[in-house]
Batch of 2 targets.
Target 1
Amino acid sequence: MHIVHTLPDLRAALAAHARPAFVPTMGNLHDGHLALVRQAKPLGDAMVASIFVNRLQFLPHEDFDSYPRTWEADCAKLQAAGCDVLFAPRETDLYPEPQTFKVQPDPLLADILEGQFRPGFFTGVCTVVMKLFCAVFAGKAQGTAVFGQKDYQQLMVLRRMAQQFALPIELVAGPTQRADDGLALSSRNGYLSETERQEAVQLSLALRALAREAVAAAHALPGQVAALEQRAREALAARGWQPDYLTVRRRNDLQPPQAGDALVVLGAARLGTTRLIDNFEV
Ligand code: PAF
């Protein structure tokens, strides 16, 4: 595996490759990331991963400084998973000057759910992903990037970005990887105490229950769906969680559903100081 830190070195490493396949990450890699790497590997002529903890997508009170940096372990895991090129820019490589130009996503999609509770998050994500895409794919005829479906709204926002900017990059969804008890794998699971780790699966159980109820109420009025969502939030809160949202949405635009729409349930809740997210297509 070729490790590069600067844009010129990345371009040199990819000079002979016309169709890179790319998995961007913030490091602290787990089996969910490695599944994305393995999925991406046959989709291009070079498998590129990046590790960059992107300050722009963290709110001031969030965990940018304490976000786990596990460089040696990450390199070993990427190498074993078949990564060809690892791009690990320093902050000054990717943001050599303050990033005053930003990619502003459609507020209808980006100011709801995660965007409502983490204002500016998707602007930070879109801006860094656009920069990473320019770094990896500049001069390439086509490319593929694989993103985890656990970050469902992020994937939708980035797909819209790629479509509206007519980027010659196909965005592919990687299925959510789960622990044996059903907890979605996430770098932030490492923040959980032993007791919290046992409790953590309750978010996915609550979402599965909400999904079942939403299907049973397929022809329900929006007010009835809202009542199901409130009950799900209250049930989780009664177990000691602080839910941000547990909600049933229309799959194609994440707006409240009408009868007959394909659905997705999405949730975000804090357990102690750890904020977890999850989702299921219904
Ligand atoms: O999903 C993530 O890990 C990050 O949001 C991403 C896409 C690597 C951008 O920093």
Target 2
Amino acid sequence: MPEKQPSPHLPSDLPTGIELLHNPILNQGTAFTEAERQLLGLCGLLPPRVNTQEIQAQRVVTNFRKKPNDLEKYIYLIDLEDRNENLFYRVVMDNIEEMMPIIYTPTVGQACVEYSHIFRRPRGLYISANDRGNIDRCLQNWPYEDVRMIVVTDGERILGLGDLGAAGMGIPVGKLSLYTACAGIHPATTLPITLDVGTNNEELLNDPQYIGLQQKRVTGDAYDELIEEFVTEVHKCFPRAVIQFEDFANHNAFRLLKEYRDRICTFNDDIQGTASVTLAGLYASLRLTGGKLKDHRFLFLGAGEAGIGIADLIVSAMKEEGVSAKKGREKCWFVDSRGLVVNSRRDLAEHKLPYAHEHEQMATLLEAVQALKPTAIIGVSGQPQTFTQEVVEEMAHLNERPIVFALSNPTSKAECTAEQAYTWTKGQAIFASGSPFDPVTYDGRTYVPGQGNNSYIFPGVGLGVITVASRRVTDSMFMAAAKALSQQVTEEDLELGRIYPPLTKIRAVSANIAAAVAEVAYSEGLTDEPRPYNMLAHVKDLMYHPDYISFV
Ligand code: NAD
């Protein structure tokens, strides 16, 4: 039985007895040793046999695999997280490929749809429009003082599922679990928050079990004032916290990012994290196609948060290659639900305008591909099967190694499947998808599709920012993160067609990203922390491990 780690600092107000067993951060259940049971008032409260964490983990994994469906698996894991966080992270980290799709996309989407019906125990903070003027009191009720990472949603655009109101809480909860599992950010420093401003989802409003405010969404000045109070109070209560805005609708996401990115330490993962993971995939693709980013022409299907965010970062990355922003934007084209984004259109939202080029309208994506001759098509439309056989074959006709990224989540929304991409291009496609696809064998060769999911990026970025207490999160950090991620792709990965490293390496990947991000904080003068001698070693030292500590 491996020894428990001696704790460097035990809390002075360590709870005992049943209170200890009900504390998910400290609870070890049957792994409390005889000596700990004597000391901590646990005698009689546990079955007599002491288990190792390893045995406990075996029990969890066996039960997990017996669950009849993914939603039941989700409920089982969240219950474990509520009882014993170390054990939860032990099993998630040791089985990341199997469990990540359960605690995060795609299953978390289904969990959010069902959230009010599977609700057991609150997790995180619910701040509603009725708390206006009192948000500080809600924040002060949070039991942990040293909050470093906040994920907040207003539930208006949960994944591709739309307005789920307060039931969107599954997303901040799931995302923060990944910050811990993938990058070792201590769970006690993370805080999921839902800003419940109502919902316009009639089904939820008519559901007696719905957990959120039973009213239409607050909008306009009242909405903005609530956000402003929230941001201000968070800054007062948790001055070292990063605020990650998550799954806000387009009309708020872009303007909130613009409003706050230079005022507080914040970022929007849907826009910037997605951009970074896609840029990483492109950098890795360049190792297969040769050439530079500026040699490519990108055609996006979907001009929302993901698409515009990716294009903006590609333009920044091209600037590093000596291309002006104007010329860079000219290499990025968009098709949205109403056709090609061109400057003659009068229906374009503000965020699309920089990419509205001079061109005649095209009726279909295929026509756009034929006319614009892109080297890469990037699907971020949430519309399944929109990369048709004709479109993908045309890409293969135009390019020796066409880049085909079908990034829409969940799997059922992907613009095309991995099998289609490889088959229709006779194995030439450099393919990535948002949700995982199984390996594909085509013409005797096996291809392992890369998963271009932002979970490769945001945990490492968060860790880097926290490690050096950076005052801001900048685009250069996302660019550095993209480079660091692409550098973790080995020649063997590329040989298999994989442009992202396997998820099993995610902690090492996140540590490298964090070190790169922290370096940017120093070079941009955003931190006052003393510079460590070896940044990567420093980052690794700070990472949380789910091993039990000894209380005696
Ligand atoms: P969004 O709502 O902001 O944007 C969607 C865009 O798609 C809009 O511009 C819309 O006009 C366009 N669109 C809708 N129907 C279309 C059609 N038939 N043809 C062309 N365009 C159409 O959403 P978003 O945040 O940009 O996300 C879009 C998709 O990308 C989602 O499915 C999401 O799951 C996925 N995504 C994946 C990742 C990842 O890590 N892989 C990250 C973020 C988003």
